[in-house]
Amino acid sequence: VQLVESGGGLVQPGGSLRLSCAASGLTFSSFHMGWYRQAPGKQRDFVARIHSDARTNYLDSVKGRFTISRDNAKNTVYLQMNSLKPEDTGVYYCNALYTATYWGQGTQVTVSS
Fold first, then answer.
1. DSSP at 40
2. Burial of 51 (0-12, 13-18, 19+ CB in 10 A)
3. What does each C-alpha distance from 32 to 2, 53, 83 come to in angstroms?
4. 13, 29, 46, 49: least buried by Cβ within 10 Å?
5. Which residue, among 89, 86, 91, has the nearest Cα to 5 in the 3D structure?
6. What is the pLDDT of residue 4?
């Protein structure tokens, strides 16, 4: 199983980024897909999840700013991040959860002026 994130980078406060996570080696449509982030010196925290039935869950602080979506035909999950804040800075990890849990290698998001 491989999860490969992309789309991170440096953005100014108020800006937007779209993260992608391409999955392979698993029955993607059966998995609940999520995004987590880890700020320097802190634990890895939940950000958003989209279930296999397309239900979504979000961390309270990103509701209304972030949108998670999935394309089962492309085995890809996305995280659209708008109105970014400095506190959104961290390494963003893709997660796949069903019969097992898998993680990607992470992509850095830095929100700074």
1. T
2. middle
3. 15, 8, 26
4. 29
5. 91
6. 98
Structure tokens at 4: 């490969």
Q: What pLDDT digit, counting tens, does each position of 52-74 carry?
A: 999 999 999 999 999 999 999 99
Q: Which long-range contacts (CB under 8 A, 24 or more apart) does 6-11 make?
A: 6/107, 7/107, 8/92, 8/107, 8/108, 8/109, 9/108, 9/109, 9/110, 10/110, 10/112, 11/84, 11/109, 11/110, 11/111
Mean pLDDT on 29-51: 97
Q: How many residues does the chain have?
A: 113
Please list the residues that pair with 46 across neighbouring strands. Answer: 36
Q: Are 7 and 108 contacting, i.e. CB atoms less than 8 angstroms apart?
A: no
- pLDDT tens figures, 30-39: 999 999 999 9
What letters, b where the CB count within 10 A reaches 16 and e where it falls short, cover 10-39?
ebeeeeebebbbbbeebebeebbbbbbbee
